[in-house]
Design brief:
The structure is a homodimer. Chain A is of the alpha+beta class. The first copy, chain A, folds into 2 domains: 142 residues, 2-Layer Sandwich (60s Ribosomal Protein L30, Chain: A); 159 residues, PurM-like C-terminal domain (Phosphoribosyl-aminoimidazole Synthetase, Chain A, domain 2, Alpha-Beta Complex), CATH 3.90.650.10. In chain A, the strands form 3 sheets. In chain A, strands 9-11-8-12-10-13-14 form a 7-stranded mixed beta sheet. A 4-stranded mixed beta sheet of chain A has the order 2-7-5-6. At the A-B interface, β1, β2, α2, β5 and β6 of A face β1, β2, α2, β5 and β6 of B.
Chain lengths: 333, 333
């Protein structure tokens, strides 16, 4: 078995070999050069630019791994701005002693996800730190996309009367990571919802026209995203608990551990807010799109106190959704 | 004293406070939004895109800290493609228990360096990992710039007859980090050469016209950069040892520890290759520019075996410079 050594991070012959054999062989494309920065042709217009660090544990989980996650995360952040994913960079911090074969699996998974999302690797970097200065591998990706919607969606654009949809059942990623840590002796068939959502957003925009808000419900879950939108837009958001899709396995795990699915991270689900008149067209398009089979209309934007998110519960009550606080679940992404 | 806790990385109220108080207060500008990606206007043309991870130890060293370094690294990678720095993203991985005040110093230093380089923060991310899963803080920056030179420079563009210049004395960063680690009981007044070089490149291009190669001599030092260029361009590069600027303090440290300054990292020095006829104009412009006072013509590109870098030694001999191999100095950047 081969392992990553400090020499692989020193910038010399071993670094070159590591990059050639693991990363270049997976990521090679015309945009990726050996120079200090990639040169990319852009059309005049607006680009979207985003970055995310990934420190998920465990590195491999049902439905994905840190590599797939790191590409999906950046693709989805671009998609949230209706930006067609164009170029991605990746920066690896690797712990000395990490298995080369695992690194290869992670890189291959990144390459496969990038191909599926139509995004090209344009730049990369590799650092190696000593044992105990990292937990296996951390990855930071950054992405560039071309913005397609004339007035881009934003957290401050929700308007009274808008409909709220979610593109699928929530909480799978968080629940899958929890189960994969094996801390609670829970057995489950849950897989993470981790997926690249550009094609879904493209289908949505084509069928339903411009959207007001588009946010992927990652760290902090759907609840966090909705609290942020309600705050930024100065509106109240109302949710119908009954209509929020949660799969049985996630529901079971949440019941067992006393968790609220609304706060569990998703890595392949978005909240969509758009005018009520186009909600049905949006729902139909989402359900027909890959990764959108379980999409649902789950609520609406209404007048009321700025920043409030109210849940109409199954038993006919109302409760206020608090913005998350404290430690929810460390290293979920 | 205040410390970073796992809750600061959970995506809730504490994360928001950390971002608002430390990062937003330092990085605020119109390009930086609370949405998933920044929206940036670009002119039609070519952009440069680059990323680098920073894991330097110690985090604070004479002449800089990991924050300043992380901005200079990305600015200089863009400048190497003659790209005017426009936008930068930063992703932090922070160890639980890290001092908040140190984080503030790092962020302030990043903001100051970015202002000096004319680059705007457009996106960011923060993750917190438990004690022992990181060594204080790691930072990954990515950058976007607009390419100014019609045919961009590249490692494969060195031509027989070209002149080779270096923009200042070499090895200061590597020597300063070595001394700062205090491993050898060495006392020195050396400061890192860490600096954002876009203005220097702009002055150079204005005075001397298009360049063939422009590379910053970071990890692996000037030797590594020259071996790469000689290899990529299929040429021999010849250096005159006597003309290579090395300050006395760096020379002294290298003598003491048996190191070769040519392999020591710089973070504010570039190798410049351009036609011999314009070497004098380039030298004059560099010496008048900030960060270029010690620039020198140090060699030439000639016919000979592809990939060879030959040093004409002070005592009249010749030696072949080997591409670096093995562990030079871990976590130098």
């Amino acid at each position: 078995m081969e392992f990553v050594t400090m020499a692989h991070g020193a910038g010399g012959a071993q670094t070159k070999r590591l990059i050639d054999e693991i990363f270049l062989s997976a990521f090679r494309n015309p945009a990726l050069t050996a120079d200090d920065a990639a040169l990319l042709a852009v059309k005049k217009g607006r680009i979207a630019f985003t970055t995310d660090g990934f420190v998920v544990t465990p590195l491999f989980f049902p439905g994905g791994n840190i590599g797939k996650l790191s590409v999906c995360g950046t693709v989805n952040d671009l998609a949230c701005m209706t930006a067609r994913p164009l170029f991605i960079s990746c920066s690896f911090i690797i712990e000395e002693g990490f298995e080369m074969e695992k690194l290869r699996m992670i890189a291959d998974s990144m390459a496969q996800t990038a191909r599926a999302a139509g995004i090209a690797f344009a730049a990369g970097d590799t650092k190696v730190v000593a044992r105990g200065q990292c937990d296996g591998v951390y990855i930071t990706t950054s992405g560039i996309g071309s913005v397609e919607q004339h007035t881009a969606p934003g957290g401050a654009r929700a308007r009274e009367g808008d409909a709220l949809l979610v593109t699928g059942d929530i909480g799978r990623h968080g629940a899958a990571i929890l189960a994969a840590r094996g801390l609670y002796g829970v057995q489950t068939e849950l897989e993470s919802d981790c997926a690249p959502l550009w094609s879904l957003v493209e289908d949505l925009l084509k069928a339903a026209g411009p959207v007001h808000c588009l946010r992927d419900a990652t760290r902090g879950g759907l609840a966090t995203v909705l609290c942020e939108i309600a705050e930024q837009s100065g509106v109240t958001i109302e949710l119908d608990e009954e209509s929020i899709p949660v799969c049985d396995a996630a529901k079971g795990l949440c019941g067992l551990l006393g968790l609220e699915p609304l706060y569990l991270a998703c890595e392949g689900r978005m909240a969509v807010i758009l005018p009520q008149t186009r909600a049905q067209a949006a729902l139909t398009a989402l359900r027909q799109s890959r990764y959108g089979a379980n999409a649902a209309v789950i609520g609406r934007v209404r007048s009321g106190r700025a920043g409030n998110v109210i849940v109409n519960t199954k038993i006919g009550g109302k409760r206020l959704l608090a913005p998350p606080s404290g430690e929810l679940l460390p290293r979920i992404c």
